[in-house]
Amino acid sequence: DVVMTQSPLSLPVTPGQPASISCRSSQSLVYRDGNTYLNWFQQRPGQSPRRLIYQVSIRDSGVPDRFSGSGSGTDFTLKISRVEAEDVGVYYCMQGTHWPFTFGPGTKVDIK
Amino acid sequence: QVQLQESGPGVVKPSQTLSLTCTVSGGSISTDGYYWSWIRQHPGKGLEWIGYMYYSGSTYYNPSLKSRLDISVDTSKNQFSLKLTSVTAADTAVYYCVRGGAALDWGQGALVTVSS
Fold first, then answer.
1. How many interface pairs between A and B have CB atoms less than 8 angstroms apart?
2. Which chain B residue's Cα is nearest to A39?
3. DSSP code per residue over B67-113
């Protein structure tokens, strides 16, 4: 299975400041069709996960533009340009290129 | 707006079969063109993709669970189901039904506890 790692695993943030989460995969996530199937999810306390970004950098409908994704190959980043209180939760990266699809361990974001 | 809702027993005895059903509303399993998935989350831990299927019957099972797993669809009821046999305490988790191979929409989750 493709192993997904994330860093940091815990990220205390100050509202209004930027935040960045790194995700790395044990294999390239470029699929034979040329696309890279790397997604980002947010799980707020007590809620189901919600997809924020798919195919590395495409924001889902309704996701604030302070969230952005970037990267290629095996190295990816989720950035929050200015953290807000509602961004508290656990963030997961997930690869959908190699079956079985796998998730990273999660990065817990909370307010300092 | 597509909504997914899991249903099934909250407690299953060890060695028995865990059965869950996902009812889809606001969309059609057979015409939407999506894959339909099951993902689980062990208490306080990360996420594991169990498997997914297409309405036509094509299925993709996580190799770690394949020997115990069955995912099926009932298009007449707009539902899809999960059966996991010979469960142990390690199968205690919140089970989510999800729309799409890229996990676009999620149900609220169903906690299943394996306990005698």
1. 42
2. B102
3. GGEEEEEETTTTEEEEEE-S--GGG-EEEEEEETTTT-EE---EEEE
**pLDDT tens string B53-93:** 988 889 999 999 999 999 999 999 999 999 999 999 999 99
The H or E element containing residue B5 is: strand B3-7
Residues of B in contact with A106 (CB under 8 A): 46
The residues near A19 (Cβ < 8 Å, ≥ 6 apart) are A11, A13, A79, A80, A83, A87, A109
What would the pLDDT profile of B24-63 be if each residue is shown by its tens digit? Answer: 999 889 877 889 999 999 988 889 999 999 888 899 999 9
Q: What order do you get walking across the sheet with B79-84 strand by strand?
A: B3-7, B18-25, B79-84, B69-74
Strands B110-114 and B11-12, by their bridges, are: parallel
Backbone angles phi, psi at A86, to 5 degrees: -75, -5
